Amino acid sequence: MCYSQFMRQLAKGLENKIVAYDDNEGQSGCTIYLHGRKHAIFVPDEIITLKQEEAIQLLRASIADNTLEASCLIVKDTGEKLIFEMRGNG
Predict the structure, then answer these.
(1) Rounded Cα–Cα distance for residues 50 and 66 (Å)
(2) pLDDT-derived band at 83, boundaries 50, 70, 90
(3) Nearest 5 degrees, angle CA 19-CA 60-CA 81?
(4) Is the pLDDT reported for residue 89 higher than 60?
(5) Which pTM does this prediction carry?
């Protein structure tokens, strides 16, 4: 999985809003941390692989517009579209 390529595309124009990303082994995805807020967004590998452009559009719009409300989110595929869902502790 090429998280660095995904993050480069996502971060264009949002450099001051994205602090870092984490792709710890065994995580099966990438966690994105946002600047100035206590937000973390987890993007699963399958979404990065199969729906990368759609995920980038969703993330860029939400990050740029500051429309994220929950502090810990996961990007989910409903089959029709990608959405944000609150991420549990487990």
Answers:
(1) 26
(2) very high
(3) 130
(4) no
(5) 0.87
